[in-house]
Each structure stands twice: as C-alpha cells, then as structure tokens.
Amino acid sequence: MTNDPSYRDNQKSNTEDNNTLTNRQGHPVTNNQNIRTVGNRGPATLENYDFIEKISHFDRERIPERVVHARGAGAHGYFEAYGTVGNEPVSKYTRAKLFQEKGKQTPVFVRFSSVIHGGHSPETLRDPRGFAVKFYTEDGNWDLVGNNLKIFFIRDAIKFPDMIHAFKPDPVTNIQDAERFFDFCASSPESFHMVTFVYSPWGIPANYRMMQGSGVNTYKWVNSDGQAVLVKYHWEPKQGIKNLTQKEASEIQATNFNHATQDLYQAIERSDYPEWELLVQILSDDEHPELDFDPLDDTKLWPEDQFPWLPVGKMILNRNPVNYFTEVEQVAFGTGVLVDGLDFSDDKMLQGRTFSYSDTQRHRVGANYLQLPINAPKKRVATNQSGGQMEYYVDRSPSHNPHINYEPSLLGGLVEAQQAGKEYTPLIEGRLVRQSIDRSNNTQQAGDTYRRFKDWERDELISNLVGDLSRCDVRIRDAMIALAAEADEEYGRRLREGLKNSPKGGSSQKPLGNKNGDQAPDKAVNIAH
Ligand code: HEM
C-alpha cells in the first residue's frame, strides 16, 4: 500500500505479535478499566499517560466531513482494458497506458456516495449518487470523479456554492426546505434537465451496484502525435439498472437507512462481485457549431444515436475495505488527477472543480493526504515537497543525496522526466470576459428526456414534483410550470393540473414533510439533493 518500509515493518509486527494491548508509544496497558487515582475514590492524577493518550485521541477521532458527498461506501477492485475503443485500436485516440493492451489490469478503489446530507444520512434519499474511481496506474493515479446521472444542475463553477447552500438545510432552522431548492432551480433554468432526472425514479437508485456512472464533464484524450479529441465517460452496470419509486424508497427507509452500503458490502463478501463496463463517447476537438448545444455544457447529454457509446474496458469490485475510516473516509479524489494521454477540456465546471478538490482535501484530510496508503500511487513517488503536519516519510529514495531537496542542481538530486509523447499544445485566444456560453438551450433536452421516460417514470416525476412544489411560493411554482411547458407541452400541462388544487405557497419556511396534510405519507420526504 505504501512505498515506506517502516510502515510495512510496523504492520508485520502488528500481525505477528501476541494480543497484548498497548498504547501508541508501544507500552503495554496493564489496566484499561480504571484511571489512576489517589485512593480508589479519586481524585485523578494528570500524569496518567495511558488515559490522557486514549481520551485525547478519541476527542480527535473525526475529521471534517466532506462538504458534499459525506455519506458513502467504498470497495477495491481492478480495471481491465480491452485495448480497443469500439472497433479501433485505442491508441488512435489516447496514449494512456492503462487502456492500451487487451487484458491489462489496473487496481482501483471506488467510492459511491449521496450528495447533500451528512455522514449517516439515509441512503434512500432523492439525490444524485457519486461514483468516484481511483485508478492506481503505472503512470501514477487517475481519478474519474463522476455521478450516476450523466448531466448536472449548473454549467458554471461559480454557482456551485450557492446551489449547495440552497439544497442543504436552511441556515436558521437546519431543516431542508423544498422551497429553497426550487427557488434556486427556478432561477437557474439550466438546472431543469437535471431536475427532471432527479425527480423521476432515476433520482433514487435502488442500490450502488445497480446504477450507471458518468464522468459528466467533458475531458480530452491525447494520442502519441499530440492530437486530442473530446471524450465523455460512462459506466454501465452488468447487474442491470434499478431505480425506486418514492413509495418503495420510503418503505426501505422505515427499516434500514444503510441499505446501499450493506448491499455492496454483502455482495462482495459472498463473492458476487459487481462489474461495470467503461464506455466513451468521442467528438472531434472543436466547438461543433452544427450542434444545438455546446459539447462543453454539462447540462446536456451527447445524443447516443449521433455519438455511440464505445466500450474500452471493464471494472470488477472484489475486495471490501479493511477499515472504513482509513480507506473510505480518508480517500481523496480529484478531477485534476490525470495521467499522460488524458487531459482537461475547457468545460467551465471541470476547471472550477479541479481547483476545489485538492483544496478541500488539504483542509479535510491534511497537507500530506497524498502520503496515506489509500491515496498514494502504487508506484515510485519522488518530490522535493516536505514538511507539513503528519508528514509520514520523505518522498525521495535513499540513494539520492538527502541534502539536495531542490531542483535544478549540479550536485545530484531529482531531475525532470522526458515528455512521454508529442505535447498537446492547443491555441487559445479570446477576450477575458464573464459571460454565459451561447447555445444554452435550457429545456429542449429536458423535453426529450421526459418523452423517453416510461409511463410509470413520468407518473412518478409529476407526482414527486407536485408533492414538493405544492409547498412552494406561487412565483416559484409558476416559474417551474413555465420551464416544464417549454420543455414539453404535456409535461407543463400535467404539472399545472397537479398543482392546481394544492394549497398556495407563500410562507417563508416549508420544511419537507407532510406539513400541509395534502400528500400521502410516502411523498413526505421527496428531496435530498
Ligand atoms: C465531492 C466540489 C461538481 C462529483 C466534492 C467535494 C468537493 C466538491 C469540495 C468534497 C471532496 C472531498 O472532501 O474529498 C465540487 C465543485 C463542483 C462539483 C466545486 C462544481 C463546480 C461535481 C460534479 C460531479 C461531482 C459535476 C459529478 C460528475 C463529486 C463526487 C464527490 C464529490 C463523486 C465525492 C468523491 C468521494 O467519494 O470522495 N465535490 N463538485 N462534483 N464531487 Fe464534486
């Protein structure tokens, strides 16, 4: 797990030793039932090292929760490449080594999650699900940090903190409020396609094994000639896809709020290993003026009939974590973590995300988070970075002169690597502006998605939207009805009719729940984004 020999020695002696309890200094603990006191009725003494160490460590057992995606489950496994993309050799599009050879295996760690609520929130809530994969490749780590749904609510990173504030509990009551959620969405019409998915059964996957994954944002692949294409990544579950109605979800939630973690853990324990195929969609690297949407807009699907899903490999999860905290809680994924042959696009969400992940992880886990076994690459790491809290080892190998912790140097030390292939050097030109993209086309694809849904999915969508919108201010309802009508005439009509007889909104606080007595209990807790 790590390239540090002392870590391995320590693990080894821990497994070989007898079962004697020690403190963290290695001293045997002879009494773990009583603190040291003056007489058996006290008072206690302050020099009681075993007690102070134990209680002080307990006081620090938690690290900050992820600001989003706090509730999650994880597993280890491997990715196996096909060596091809569809019928072509993958090398035509990317030189990334993990994809090149048929049958080549790369270890992975995956963390699934829900987004809005805290670390022990129910796994039945209506919410996108996170699908983050860390590939420990021979060229270092690649993180593909995706969701189950293929699109997102917003297309500009500057809106993300506002969006999350609106979706999380009210800062005064600490209760999630449908009115705040829809207030943001009605005022951000680009979110309507995602709202359409999230309020349909696709907003409650039955478990983590039976859901798709997607990179959502647009990336690039670069080949050995330095030529790039735009790509989108998709994971397709071999187990099939299963989503829940609100009623089914509420029934599960009444008895079990850990059902998805449990399902994943138990499947792996009984050797029923979940598997996903990785597929990509490819577009040439340009603006595509012929399309009615921008390929860098993450609120849009790339239509499958125009841009087929091409298989490139498969992933199997076959090992549960040994410890939840050290692996699932401390794992740190980021969109900036790419390997040679993979690149960013100019997608504005992706660019904003790429700053945010490592920034939060330096705060959440600590400056040396990349030295933890779950985050460290399974290959040689050699940097001149050192110090900071909890530095665990020096990244440089002992064969290098330990005095030379800088570069360049005539006296030894680390040297720059050779470029692996021809560098990709796109020409970028334009005025610095703060402007939305053209071709925003906010509702057309939401209409296509509505029409593609099965009848029961449309029924659920309308019923779930009516349930939560009925508790919102009338201005918000009207704006949402207008967006639905713009997307599809029937969608707008059904939403308008559904809301017609519900009580008018207007008060400032509408906590989720059966407050107005106007909905069945199974519609009481609809959103949890
Ligand atoms: C987690 C920021 C959009 C998927 C996080 C975290 C932050 C963040 C700060 C917590 C990371 C940690 O503590 O380790 C942002 C920002 C976004 C954005 C600023 C938009 C500008 C998205 C989108 C997706 C996504 C579009 C889906 C493709 C995830 C996932 C996690 C996560 C799956 C959890 C990773 C894990 O399991 O540890 N995000 N995010 N995020 N985000 Fe985003």
Automatic annotation (TrEMBL):
State the needed cofactors, names only.
heme
Q: Which UniProt keywords are present, listed alphabetically?
A: Heme, Hydrogen peroxide, Iron, Metal-binding, Oxidoreductase, Peroxidase
Q: Which Pfam families match?
A: Catalase, Catalase-rel
- Tagged with keyword Transmembrane: no
Catalytic activity field? 2 H2O2 = O2 + 2 H2O
| SUPFAM superfamilies for this protein | Heme-dependent catalase-like (SSF56634)
Query: Which ranges carry the Catalase core domain?
Result: 22-415
**Entry EC number(s):** 1.11.1.6
Compositionally biased intervals (Polar residues)? 16-37
Give residue spans, biased composition: Basic and acidic residues.
1-15
- Where are the stretches annotated Disordered? 1-43, 496-529
Q: What class of enzyme is it?
A: oxidoreductase
**Free-text function comment from the UniProt entry:** Decomposes hydrogen peroxide into water and oxygen; serves to protect cells from the toxic effects of hydrogen peroxide.
Which family is this protein grouped under?
Answer: Belongs to the catalase family.
This chain's protein is named: Catalase
